[in-house]
Amino acid sequence: MEPANNCLLLLLSFSLLFFFIPAANCSLDSFLYGGCSPLKYTPDSQYESNLNSLLTSLVNSATYSPYNKYAIMGPTPHDVVYGLYQCRADLAMPDCATCVARAVTHLGPLCSQTCGGAVQLEGCFVKYDNASFIGVEDKTVVMKKCGPSDGYTADQMGRRDAVLAGLNGAGGAYRVGGSEDVQGVAQCVGDLSNGQCQDCLTEAIRRLKAECGGAVFGDMFLSKCYARYSTSGAHAYTRSNDHGSSHSDSEKTFAIIIGLLAGVALLIIFLTFVRRIFGGNGK
After folding, report:
1. Which residues pair with 220 in a beta bridge?
2. By CB neighbour count within 10 A (0-12 exposed, 13-18 middle, 19+ buried), where does 184 fall?
């Protein structure tokens, strides 16, 4: 009886190990920035319960949608919590779900017991607060990063400016562009209207050009949008070259995990059946 029980425990541990294997494309989980509200909530309060429900809803929703927003109500206005997530629009859904789950795990230690927090990873953005920010335009600079200017030619600068102008003139919440060795990407959070998105991206691109000058790459993140560019492969922001393979690899990973779990479940059923037979014979 004891060997059978041990075997069951080992199989269960094995299945959980595979279930929590990190997905491919770890660079999507790279931490870019985070911030927290100075206000704190009381442990074991209604707000904490609502916040846990909100974060669970964000993670679950990211398995089927690249953007969503929620508001969890409470008995008093102080218990209400608002939140949203936004994945980069070129991600496969399994990658989006993995990224949002990782962002939520960052929020725990980073913003412990705070009434508001935000985390931006390479592939996704997550934010919550007790004050409503949904649909509110915010052009506050939250992160700026400029690369070195060594080796950046006048021709590249011209192509960079043309790529950024193309991003500014393009429509939609997610925009990509390129010219030879220059790549650019821009995106708004999905709660903004078309006009708010354009206004935000115009400001992000203006600041990016003015503050990064002739840098080989530049990132300008405002509270509700960002614009980025890269030259000569300094950064690979988009996945246009391997987007199809990303879907395929993610789907294969999920299929393998599901197959393994199904196999483990069948083994557990079989071993339980065998144990009952031997137990019955032993009586």
Report:
1. 144, 227
2. buried
What is the arithmetic mean of pLDDT over 222-244? Answer: 72
Asked if residues 249 and 242 have their Cβ atoms less than 8 Å apart, the reply is no
Q: How confident is the model at residue 157 (pLDDT cuts 50, 70, 90)?
A: confident
Record: fold of 23-129: Killer Toxin P4; Chain A (3.30.430)
- Tell me what pLDDT residue 64 has: 97
What is the pLDDT at residue 181?
86
Determine the CATH number of domain 141-231.
3.30.430.20
Q: How far apart are the first and last CA of the chain?
A: 13
What's the CA gap between 177 and 132, in Å, rounded? 33
- What count of other Cβ atoms lies within 10 Å of the Cβ of residue 194? 11
Query: What are 32's two structure tokens?
Result: 């870019």
What pTM did the predictor assign? 0.75
Alpha helices in 62-193 (DSSP H): 93-110, 154-169
Domain boundaries, the chain: 23-129, 141-231
Let me know: does 47 contact 115? Beta carbons within 8 Å: yes
Q: Where are the alpha helices (DSSP H) in 25-176?
A: 46-61, 93-110, 154-169
Rounded CA separation 280/65 (Å): 51
